[in-house]
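=== RUN LOG ===
request id: a7f3
mode: sequence -> structure
chains: 1
length: 240
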Amino acid sequence: MRRTLAITAALVATAGCSAPGRPSRDSQVLSPLKITNFNILYETNCAGCHGRGGKGGAAIGIGDPVYLVIADDASIRRVVDNGVPGTAMPAFAETAGGMLTNSQVETIVTGIRSRWARPGALQGETPPPYAAQQSGDPNRGANVYSVYCSSCHGADARGGPRASSIVDPSYLSLVSDQYLRTTVIVGRPELGAPDWRGDVPGKAMSNEEVSDVVTWLAAHRPQVTSPSLSSAKSEAGGIQ
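=== RESULT ===
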């Protein structure tokens, strides 16, 4: 009997650490703040809106080579950090109430650039600048819309045979002027929308025309009651 008890005790002592479901002695739970893998950070925080591989989804594709030509790292980082008030883009940096460290934000920004930017993507062509350099004219913008956009979005911008409304109040309430500008320049290739060069064959949009049509579109946005929110939407940049 004593020998049997001794054997049983020895087996329990040696087998206890390998019981099913029990973590091994050298296993460690990694703190979310210490995750530095780009793929994990992007899939967890960005892919839900910007799509897997940065190809676009509910929001513009931030892996689009044209986007990465016009948006520099500082612009991308600013919006990853702070988000865009009044839109669906939240702040991710801890300093702005988010859950990512400065190092994790940097991993996302540099990872986007290193994986998806393509030197020479524009074949020597110069796109309109990312940020508007002056205010557009909504009256001219109406004419720009008619020339470049109406064939897809309809004569009144409320939807056409190939694209949906872009003056819908709900849509305009969720996007900033910078988002509209970026979309006009970069397009939404995953949805069949061309960039600034492809709306009219052989006639690329100028910087002034982009600014004018964005101002015309923004004029359809419902008025907000908070002046600070309205200003934030107009001035925000970044992943937009």
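=== NOTES ===
Confidence is low (pLDDT under 50) at residues 4-12, 233-238.
The first helix runs from residue 2 to 15.
=== END ===
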